[in-house]
Amino acid sequence: MLSEIALYGAIETGLIYGLVAFGIYISFRVLDFPDLTVDGSFPLGAAVAAMLIINGWNPWLATGAAVLAGMAAGAVTALLNVKLKILNLLASILTMIALYSINLRIMGRPNVALLSEETVLTPWYDLDLAFHQVPVLLFIIVVMICLVLMWRFMKSETGLAMRATGANARMARAQGIATGAMIVLGIAISNGLVGLAGALFAQSQGAADVTMGVGVIIIGLASLIGGEAVITPSSVLRALFACVIGAIVYRLAIAFALNADVLGLQAQDLNLITAILVTLAIVLPGVRSSVASKFTRNKA
Amino acid sequence: MISASDLRLTFGKGTPLENPALRGMSLTVNQGEFVTVIGSNGAGKSTFLNALSGEVMVDSGEIIVDNVDVTRLPTHKRAGMVARVFQDPLAGTCEALSIEENLSLAIKRGQRRGLTAAVKKQYMEQFRDSLSSLKLGLESRLGDKMGLLSGGQRQAVSLLMASLTPSSILLLDEHTAALDPKTAAFVLELTTKIIDEQKLTALMVTHSMKQALEVGTRTVMLHQGQVVFDIQGKEREGLEVKDLLGLFEKQRGLEVDDDSLLLG
Ligand SMILES: Nc1ncnc2c1ncn2[C@@H]1O[C@H](COP(=O)(O)OP(=O)(O)O)[C@@H](O)[C@H]1O
Ligand SMILES: [Mg+2]
Asked: Based on CB atoms within 10 Å of each CB, which residue in A11, A26, A84, A215 is the most buried?
């Protein structure tokens, strides 16, 4: 059986990946923009927050700066695509690779420890809660705030314009929507959320590491797809809940799998397992969307 | 008023597939005119409409809408003046969004979009009224996903969306061609009704010469990226399809068979 600490640990990480899944929901689902920038913007958020914290910044301000850094990274990817007409996937790989260097520059070394620093979690440890429950409580609050904001945004005039951009760009333009601007805004918000996730992850793990972004995209996708399997995303609200539930269920499943000795799995197998799961999961929606695209292709 | 003068556009310039789609296309449409556009396949009808809406940029020439030079403006900046219905019934609406969300997108065509809720209570009466005029029972299905509707229903909603807010010109590109005959007749009737009632200025491409003469106030024929004839008023009254063919032959001095024009 899973220990209580491992259980809370899985939920804590799941909540952080819920934020990543929100970001991936915007890029992959709302805008239909396969964005791999997240593998770079996650450690970017961690690096920015960690460096500002060790330089004495208020941890919430440092976290806010991490969000802005993530948004800037996302905007770069989107601009490479929209302005320079670079294929979206390639544009995101370019930014991701560039961020590896940038993250090393920001930190000046491959990792930065935060163990003795004041983080966003510090004041919460004064609450009458077990040590491992504190991050879960704080992250539930953060994730719920983000969920409500995302939901309200997606229902707003601008959010609806963004959804139309991803669903039918030609129709969106005909309605007067600046689709290029919508892509920049959406991919920026997406990576801002991932930057937030990176910043919180660094603070809860007590370190930022330049390699901590490897596979974030795949884990985020696994959460998104898994969540959609559990909760049919028939509305924006359901889709957002699916992101969070998917991420938590995914981390719990991984924790159980690693815990079950009979399987003989080790932590380093995680990316392989995730990749296989995502491949399997993509087959179904993949068939569906390729059928759908046959019906939606525009004829001039 | 919308005025296009000497529009030229070549696709694939400098490649073996170089294709001059517009070759000095000029047309002025006055306020309240309903122009039907005919021409064989590849004559440049869709390209002309795309040039007017901004979906393609012309190489040279000038497009003036209500005294504004829009020649270099992208689609989204012209959208307030130019309303469109596409040939593909799936192209004009978003199937993943609900009927009310599609209409709410359209009611803000060409206007700034903010952070207030997109679907507003105060729109509902207008939405229900216009939907009930379609007599398709859609007024009670505002929350349904657009994807649940048939092609004809979606095209009818596309028409509503295009006429929800005022525009300087409504562009219809063979918008009934993909529908079965009965639905096509219904959508065409709806089109003429909306254009009449709202006194819209419209440009409608049709593949049927008969239809081109039956509806609208003026008919133009395109051929090889130019207007070959333009008839209205007395000249147009009582004209039949065979007269149109005769006109075309006289203009171009060449033989055309009925089919190649009808299939455009
Ligand atoms: N996007 C495009 N790229 C290259 N050629 C095009 C494109 N769109 C149209 N054409 C060509 O331009 C010509 C005019 O096409 P179009 O305007 O669609 O004709 P119509 O609508 O009158 O049938 C055709 O020869 C067509 O093949
Ligand atoms: Mg055409």
From this structure: A26
